[in-house]
Amino acid sequence: MNIWKFLILIILVIFLGWGIFKLEYEKKGMTQEYLKVKEITDKLFAENQKTKEQIDYYQNPENLLKASREQFNFKNEGEQMIIIVPKVASTTP
Q1: 3-state class of 17 per DSSP?
Q2: What is the SS3 assignment for 10?
Q3: What is the DSSP-derived secondary structure letter of residue 60?
Q4: CA-closest candidate to residue 68, choices 17, 57, 4
Q5: What CA–CA distance (Å, rounded) separates 51 from 71?
Q6: Can you tell me the mean pLDDT for 48-76?
Q7: What are the angstrom distances between the C-alpha of 35 and each of 4, 22, 44, 63?
Q8: Distance (Å, rounded) from C-alpha 19 to C-alpha 26?
Q9: DSSP secondary structure string, 26-56?
Q10: Fewer CB atoms inside 10 A, N or C side of the chain?
Q11: Pair 38, 30: CB distance under 8 Å
């Protein structure tokens, strides 16, 4: 009778060991997935913060006018635009 108890105990230990092994394997996979998601979340948070800063910057009419002048060559009536092209060094002697 003692041998049956011993065999049952061994079988239980094997099943418990296998269960623990599977849980640890799943934990490792979930940890890796969590780190990937956290990295993406951190990047999106930084991008969101940058966008908020740009919104705050462009809410000032002077900054908006400055940006429109730089990016779209916007000018007021009566203004003339001067484009300065830097001198390019020639490669031939």
Answers
A1: helix
A2: helix
A3: S
A4: 57
A5: 18
A6: 87
A7: 46, 20, 14, 39
A8: 11
A9: HHHHHHHHHHHHHHHHHHHHHHHHHHHHHHH
A10: C
A11: no
Q: For residue 20, is pLDDT > 90?
A: yes
Token readout for 74 is 């916007």
What is the model's pLDDT at position 92? 64
Name the least confident of 3-7, 19-23, 33-37.
Answer: 3-7
Burial class (CB in 10 A: 0-12, 13-18, 19+), 29: exposed
The residue assigned the tokens 């991008």 is 47
Confidence check: pLDDT of 85 > 90: no
Query: What is the domain partition of the chain in residue ranges?
Result: 2-72
Token pair 């809410």 is at which residue?
59
Residues with Cβ within 8 Å of 73's Cβ and at least 6 positions away in sequence, in order, are 81
Instruction: Indicate yes or no: pTM above 0.70.
Output: no
Report whether 92 contacts 86 (CB < 8 A).
no
